[in-house]
Design brief:
By secondary structure, this protein is an alpha+beta fold. It has a single domain, classed as Beta Complex (Beta-clip-like), CATH 2.170.270.10. It contains 3 helices and 9 strands. The strands form 3 sheets. It has a 5-stranded antiparallel sheet with strand order 4-5-3-8-7, with no helix packed on it. The longest helix is centred in the last third of the chain and has 11 residues. It binds S-adenosylmethionine. S-adenosylmethionine (SAM) binds next to β2, β6 and α2. It holds the Pfam family SET.
Length: 175
Protein backbone atom coordinates (compact mmCIF):
# COMPACT_ATOMS: atom_id res chain seq x y z
CA UNK A 1 0.00 0.00 0.00
CA UNK A 2 1.37 3.44 -0.90
CA UNK A 3 1.96 5.70 2.08
CA UNK A 4 0.14 9.01 1.68
CA UNK A 5 1.66 12.14 3.19
CA UNK A 6 -0.58 13.84 5.71
CA UNK A 7 -2.24 17.02 4.34
CA UNK A 8 0.00 19.21 6.54
CA UNK A 9 3.23 17.92 4.98
CA UNK A 10 1.99 17.77 1.37
CA UNK A 11 3.94 20.02 -0.98
CA UNK A 12 1.84 22.43 -3.03
CA UNK A 13 1.19 21.08 -6.54
CA UNK A 14 3.32 22.58 -9.31
CA UNK A 15 1.31 25.39 -10.95
CA UNK A 16 0.00 24.18 -14.29
CA UNK A 17 -1.42 27.46 -15.46
CA UNK A 18 -1.24 31.18 -14.87
CA UNK A 19 -4.26 33.47 -15.16
CA UNK A 20 -3.41 36.20 -17.66
CA UNK A 21 -4.37 39.85 -17.35
CA UNK A 22 -4.41 42.73 -19.77
CA UNK A 23 -5.83 46.21 -19.28
CA UNK A 24 -8.36 46.36 -22.14
CA UNK A 25 -8.49 50.08 -22.95
CA UNK A 26 -5.28 50.53 -24.90
CA UNK A 27 -4.44 51.41 -28.47
CA UNK A 28 -1.42 50.97 -30.68
CA UNK A 29 -0.36 54.22 -32.35
CA UNK A 30 1.73 53.71 -35.48
CA UNK A 31 3.50 57.00 -36.14
CA UNK A 32 5.07 58.23 -32.89
CA UNK A 33 8.65 59.62 -32.91
CA UNK A 34 9.61 56.27 -31.32
CA UNK A 35 7.84 54.13 -33.94
CA UNK A 36 4.77 52.26 -32.77
CA UNK A 37 3.68 52.87 -29.19
CA UNK A 38 0.98 51.84 -26.70
CA UNK A 39 -1.42 54.52 -25.44
CA UNK A 40 -4.18 54.56 -22.79
CA UNK A 41 -7.69 55.20 -24.10
CA UNK A 42 -9.11 55.60 -20.56
CA UNK A 43 -7.47 56.60 -17.26
CA UNK A 44 -5.52 53.74 -15.64
CA UNK A 45 -5.31 53.63 -11.83
CA UNK A 46 -1.88 53.18 -10.23
CA UNK A 47 -1.09 49.49 -9.56
CA UNK A 48 -3.21 48.13 -12.44
CA UNK A 49 -1.75 45.11 -14.21
CA UNK A 50 -1.29 46.33 -17.78
CA UNK A 51 -0.17 43.03 -19.28
CA UNK A 52 1.39 39.65 -18.55
CA UNK A 53 3.58 38.71 -21.50
CA UNK A 54 5.15 35.26 -21.93
CA UNK A 55 8.80 35.19 -23.03
CA UNK A 56 10.83 32.94 -25.29
CA UNK A 57 14.22 32.25 -23.72
CA UNK A 58 17.14 32.15 -26.13
CA UNK A 59 20.36 30.33 -25.41
CA UNK A 60 23.36 32.70 -25.25
CA UNK A 61 24.67 30.98 -28.38
CA UNK A 62 21.43 31.46 -30.31
CA UNK A 63 21.57 35.10 -29.33
CA UNK A 64 25.13 35.79 -30.44
CA UNK A 65 25.01 33.61 -33.57
CA UNK A 66 21.63 34.73 -34.87
CA UNK A 67 19.46 37.21 -32.97
CA UNK A 68 22.09 39.92 -32.41
CA UNK A 69 22.38 40.17 -36.20
CA UNK A 70 18.67 40.82 -36.72
CA UNK A 71 16.15 43.49 -35.80
CA UNK A 72 14.77 41.12 -33.17
CA UNK A 73 17.79 42.18 -31.10
CA UNK A 74 15.92 45.42 -30.28
CA UNK A 75 13.08 43.45 -28.73
CA UNK A 76 14.94 41.22 -26.23
CA UNK A 77 15.32 41.59 -22.48
CA UNK A 78 18.24 40.48 -20.29
CA UNK A 79 17.20 37.33 -18.47
CA UNK A 80 19.10 35.36 -15.79
CA UNK A 81 20.12 32.04 -17.27
CA UNK A 82 18.31 29.21 -15.46
CA UNK A 83 20.90 27.18 -13.57
CA UNK A 84 20.88 23.44 -14.45
CA UNK A 85 22.12 22.51 -10.96
CA UNK A 86 20.24 24.78 -8.57
CA UNK A 87 16.88 26.47 -8.16
CA UNK A 88 18.53 29.86 -7.75
CA UNK A 89 18.81 32.02 -10.88
CA UNK A 90 22.38 32.16 -12.11
CA UNK A 91 24.32 35.40 -12.35
CA UNK A 92 24.94 34.83 -16.07
CA UNK A 93 22.32 36.35 -18.32
CA UNK A 94 20.84 35.37 -21.62
CA UNK A 95 18.21 37.14 -23.74
CA UNK A 96 14.46 36.63 -23.83
CA UNK A 97 12.07 37.65 -26.59
CA UNK A 98 8.92 39.11 -25.05
CA UNK A 99 5.91 37.76 -26.91
CA UNK A 100 2.93 40.06 -27.06
CA UNK A 101 2.21 43.58 -25.95
CA UNK A 102 5.36 43.85 -23.82
CA UNK A 103 7.45 44.24 -26.96
CA UNK A 104 5.53 47.36 -27.96
CA UNK A 105 6.32 49.52 -24.91
CA UNK A 106 8.75 52.32 -25.73
CA UNK A 107 11.43 53.67 -23.40
CA UNK A 108 11.22 56.84 -21.36
CA UNK A 109 13.84 57.73 -18.76
CA UNK A 110 11.94 60.73 -17.39
CA UNK A 111 8.28 59.81 -17.96
CA UNK A 112 8.06 56.06 -17.45
CA UNK A 113 4.65 55.12 -16.06
CA UNK A 114 4.82 51.33 -16.30
CA UNK A 115 7.08 49.08 -14.22
CA UNK A 116 7.99 45.53 -15.18
CA UNK A 117 9.13 42.48 -13.30
CA UNK A 118 10.42 39.12 -14.50
CA UNK A 119 8.65 36.05 -13.19
CA UNK A 120 11.54 33.64 -13.66
CA UNK A 121 9.62 30.52 -12.70
CA UNK A 122 6.74 31.08 -15.10
CA UNK A 123 8.84 32.84 -17.75
CA UNK A 124 6.59 35.86 -18.10
CA UNK A 125 7.03 39.62 -17.66
CA UNK A 126 4.40 41.42 -15.58
CA UNK A 127 3.76 45.08 -16.44
CA UNK A 128 2.10 47.33 -13.83
CA UNK A 129 1.06 51.01 -13.79
CA UNK A 130 3.55 52.87 -11.56
CA UNK A 131 1.15 55.79 -11.04
CA UNK A 132 -2.25 56.99 -12.22
CA UNK A 133 -2.06 57.25 -16.01
CA UNK A 134 -4.21 59.80 -17.83
CA UNK A 135 -6.33 59.04 -20.90
CA UNK A 136 -4.22 59.62 -24.01
CA UNK A 137 -0.84 59.10 -22.30
CA UNK A 138 1.73 56.80 -23.84
CA UNK A 139 2.67 53.80 -21.71
CA UNK A 140 6.44 53.73 -21.35
CA UNK A 141 8.88 51.55 -19.44
CA UNK A 142 12.56 52.02 -18.67
CA UNK A 143 14.97 49.97 -20.76
CA UNK A 144 17.82 50.85 -18.39
CA UNK A 145 20.94 52.85 -19.11
CA UNK A 146 22.46 51.10 -22.12
CA UNK A 147 20.32 51.94 -25.13
CA UNK A 148 20.97 50.63 -28.65
CA UNK A 149 19.27 53.67 -30.28
CA UNK A 150 19.18 57.45 -29.92
CA UNK A 151 16.55 58.36 -27.30
CA UNK A 152 14.29 60.94 -28.99
CA UNK A 153 13.28 62.42 -25.62
CA UNK A 154 16.86 62.95 -24.48
CA UNK A 155 17.71 64.34 -27.91
CA UNK A 156 14.76 66.78 -27.75
CA UNK A 157 15.81 67.93 -24.26
CA UNK A 158 19.40 68.47 -25.39
CA UNK A 159 18.28 70.54 -28.36
CA UNK A 160 15.78 72.52 -26.23
CA UNK A 161 12.85 71.65 -28.50
CA UNK A 162 9.73 73.50 -27.40
CA UNK A 163 6.65 71.60 -26.24
CA UNK A 164 3.21 72.34 -27.82
CA UNK A 165 2.13 74.52 -24.86
CA UNK A 166 5.11 76.83 -25.28
CA UNK A 167 4.45 77.22 -29.01
CA UNK A 168 0.75 77.97 -28.43
CA UNK A 169 1.68 80.54 -25.76
CA UNK A 170 3.93 82.38 -28.18
CA UNK A 171 1.28 82.44 -30.92
CA UNK A 172 -1.26 84.00 -28.51
CA UNK A 173 1.14 86.66 -27.30
CA UNK A 174 2.14 87.67 -30.83
CA UNK A 175 -1.46 87.62 -32.17
C1 LIG B 1 10.79 47.10 -28.02
S1 LIG B 1 10.70 48.11 -29.41
C2 LIG B 1 9.33 49.16 -29.03
C3 LIG B 1 8.33 49.20 -30.15
C4 LIG B 1 8.79 49.93 -31.38
N1 LIG B 1 8.57 51.37 -31.25
C5 LIG B 1 8.14 49.40 -32.63
O1 LIG B 1 7.57 50.18 -33.42
O2 LIG B 1 8.21 48.20 -32.89
C6 LIG B 1 12.16 49.07 -29.17
C7 LIG B 1 12.45 50.04 -30.26
O3 LIG B 1 11.55 51.18 -30.19
C8 LIG B 1 12.24 52.39 -30.45
N2 LIG B 1 12.23 53.23 -29.24
C9 LIG B 1 11.76 52.90 -28.02
N3 LIG B 1 11.90 53.91 -27.15
C10 LIG B 1 12.50 54.92 -27.82
C11 LIG B 1 12.96 56.24 -27.46
N4 LIG B 1 12.84 56.73 -26.22
N5 LIG B 1 13.55 56.97 -28.42
C12 LIG B 1 13.69 56.50 -29.69
N6 LIG B 1 13.28 55.28 -30.09
C13 LIG B 1 12.69 54.49 -29.17
C14 LIG B 1 13.67 52.00 -30.83
O4 LIG B 1 13.72 51.85 -32.25
C15 LIG B 1 13.83 50.64 -30.16
O5 LIG B 1 14.81 49.84 -30.78
Amino acid sequence: MAIEKSPETKEPPAPESLPLARFPHLKLVFDTPKGRGVFATTPIPSGTTIDISPVLLLTPQENTTHIEKTSLYHYTYNWPLPSPTSNKPSTTTTQAVVLGLGSMFNHSAAHQNVGWTRDLEREVVVYTALRDVAEGEELCISYGGRLTFVDVEAEAEREGVEGPEEVLGRIEVDG
